[in-house]
Amino acid sequence: MRYPLRTGMTLSVILLLFLAFNLVWVVKLPDLRQDFSQQQTNTLSPAVLHLLTTLESPLDFYYFNSSIPAKKSILKHYAKRVEEKLRAFEHAANGRINLHIIDPTPFSEDAYKAGLYGLRDQPGFFGLIGAREGQTAQRIESFNPENEPLLEYEISHLITQLLHPEPAIVGLLSGLPAGASIEPLVLELHRHFDLLELEPTADHVPSRIKTLMLVHPRGLPEKTLYAIDQFVLGGGKLLMFIDPLDKGGSKTTSSATRLDGLLAGWGVSMPSNKVLVDPTYAPSEHQPATFTLPRQAMNTRDVSSWKLGTVTVSNSGALFSLDKSRAIFTPLLRSSRQSLLIDSDAVGSALPTRGEPHVIAARLEGPAYSAFADGFGGRPPGLQKAAQIHVVVVADTDMLSEPPGESARNANKLFVMNALDNLAAPQALADIRPRAVAGHSLKLLAKRREAAERAYRDQAAELERRLARTEKEWQRLNPDVTALGTESVDTSTQLQALNKERLRLPMELHTLKNTLYAPVQRLERNVKLLVIVPLPALLCLIAWGLFRRRRRRWPVPPSAFY
To answer: What is the pLDDT of residue 338?
Structure first.
């Protein structure tokens, strides 16, 4: 009797000591965390930590996350990761960020406030409001899992807007002919930036301009190209839209040569009078040079793709990185694997069935050299090289003025605004790079999935074109008409053949997809089994071993021998 009592008292004392330790001492212990992820995705980047050191006054973050049953599971998991990231910001800010987590129920006062500040109800709220005393509140109207690599940048951008609410100064220099208007875009730029429009004949860039947007430099004189050359080498940041077609704006042959030299000094080239056609992304086979790039054609780990779904280009060129260049060439927009770079006169003619992806927009960072080694206009040579340039080149100008449809125009504006906003951002924000997504797929599995997707695109392209032609012909021969409750079946030979074709081709596409993705699905299933089964099996074996060991130690009762 004494032994069980002593054991119970000992356990009670241990429990009381454990509770006392948690209540008194745990709060005084340092918060030790270790990030074991491969690319340190669970730790704030040094650039973010540097930004947080610049905080002088406290900020309030109001994180609205509705926990409603209708919310998709992927959003619920992402909401948890966003909350963890916001807590990391709060912890690293050393008291200069106060995080308030709010779960607004429908028709509540919190939901009313979220809607009042412009957060999106989709359904439920999943956004962030940042506030600073004496400043206009800033918001992230909705977090999107597709933008997870940009999550740190997204939150840091909000902080920067609270710290520096004044618009950035941006210059605009256009060499477009008078008939090509980009006025709607210019009005949008005036709303977001302190925009200074320069004359096409400018011989220098004012010193107060640190970021310049350049449109169609083929139409600019040589002295203006020299000013741009010196601006970039002097540390200025440039967003350039260059067209492969002359459009009647080129001043002289020497200007065109200088422009090619300018690009070469930055480590990039673009063939002139060569137009990109893309039958995969083109909505009409009669206009293959006008096509809409989906999100998978973008660099989703670059700020230019932030909140962007599509980009429409027309008569665009292609950019190529020079072999001897030391600058980092980062593609931002790519065409499909069926795209072709052809002479501008050949657009509309028969095209080969196979092509290759081409770069339409790219970010250039790194060493660069001047295209004016001997100076210009009798003046001595200026800056001849730079250790680091910041340039974004887009091989299209029509995207600024001619995309059909309101949604396409808005999407193109967003691409321009993203790129320009990032270039004009304070250095503390510009240094923040997108992060790899935690929990990414195994490399082998990702490669297999990418190979299957590539093979499907290549093999399905012709079937999809045949299906589109068949559907179009079917609609032409069998238009929608007003009919009574019952109608006769058309048994004409041509319609029957078309109907069989339009029903058979989707089945072939489905079979092709299943065939190509079957090895990937088997590998995924095997990986899941390897991840799920071994640990429970190991625990069961350990438990069984302990049970057998204890069983051997149990004394055998005397009655077992009788």
So the answer is: 86
